[in-house]
Amino acid sequence: MAFPVTRLRRLRQNETLRSMVRETRLTPESLVYPLFVCPGEAVRKVIRSMPGVFNLSIDQAVQEAQETHALGIPAIILFGLPETKDDRASGAWADDGIVQRATRAIKRAVPELVVLGDVCLCEYMSHGHCGIARKSTASGAARADHGSAASAAAAPSPEFEIENDATLEILARTAVSLARAGVDIVAPSDMMDGRVAAIRTALDGAGLQNMPILSYAAKFASGFYGPFREAADSAPQFGDRRSYQMDGGNLREAMREIQTDLEEGADMVMVKPAMPYLDVIAQARERFDVPICAYQVSGEYAMIQAAAQNGWLDRDRVVMESLLSIRRAGAGTILTYFAKEAAKLMS
Ligand code: PBG
């Protein structure tokens, strides 16, 4: 029955009608707010490429956690800037590590707020990679600095390999340490093969059978992580992350990453970044009956902030539209630096 019988504009005549037939809605319960925790007291250090986001000392992070909870947002995810870095990432799994201490303080102040612990090593490694780096003997394809155009600008370095299996043990130790500190979910973001199984085994061995794992399953090697690396001081000192993060062209491989992580015991999975990979979110939603999360990453945030600061975009509108698109694609949960603002706009 075509025009003139069918007139789709009939249901768009006013906001009440539009709202009645709206298929996708945003609520604060679907958001997770990321925080960057640093040493010190009363620190709120500006991150130049992420206006409105700060490096926070633990006391400040506790305040943010309280505000986040008051806005109806159920969860935060913590990233840490350790006092010192080394080539074993000891700051990631130390009992008194920065995220471990922040977790204890936040859970004491706001016990109902869900705290996710990001399990990765790049913030704690002196070289900034997500795994153990070893000077490469072979000229294998797994080299961290595998001749990409982007890495040409980095300092010339011997060829390095990011060692998969040796890294698993430290990742597992980090997950157990974060769980003991009180996080509610561990979220590995390193992209080593087998990390979910290694973490599950270690958690179970430590009597932590009920600790959920949210795996960053389909994490693409992305230019959109640029501002995060300023925020977390985690830029790789040589090469890039293309030997472990996914190639941007690969949708089928993303489904395999998700499948293997689920087989290894992941309880929830993530696609990251979000807006440039909405098709990956949509297909993951179709294929897998598990909670799907998406991370609207630092570069997605910075783009909107920059355009809005120039008066080129209506910020509130595009913030909500970007989140709605991620939700419509199929993500049940969205990690976003806009979480607090968006929750205010929703109320
Ligand atoms: C750690 C990690 C990264 C992000 C989250 N966890 C960055 C990276 O791989 O360099 C990016 C988040 C963002 O850009 O907002 N591996």
Question: How is this structure best described in words?
Answer:
- This protein has 347 residues and is of the alpha/beta class.
- It has one domain: TIM Barrel (Alpha-Beta Barrel).
- Helices cover 37% and strands 16% of the residues.
- It has twelve helices and twelve strands.
- The strands form two sheets. Strands 1, 2, 3, 4, 5, 8, 9, 10, 11 and 12 form a ten-stranded mixed beta sheet that branches.
- Helix 9 links the parallel strand 10 and strand 11.
- About 5% of the residues have low confidence.
- The site of ligand PBG has 12 residues, from helix 7.
What is this entry, summarized?
The chain has 347 residues and is of the alpha/beta class.
The SSE order reads HEEEHEHHEEEHEHEHHEHEHHEH
The structural domain count equals 1
Per DSSP, the total helix count is 12
Cα radius of gyration in angstroms: 21 Å
Count of strand segments: 12
Any idea what the CATH architecture is?
Alpha-Beta Barrel
Low-confidence spans: pLDDT under 50, at least 5 residues? 140-156
Q: What does the average pLDDT come to?
A: 94
**Largest sheet descriptor:** 10 strands, mixed
Text of the CATH class: Alpha Beta
Shape: globular
Structural class call reads alpha/beta
Give the CATH topology: TIM Barrel
Strand content: 15-25%
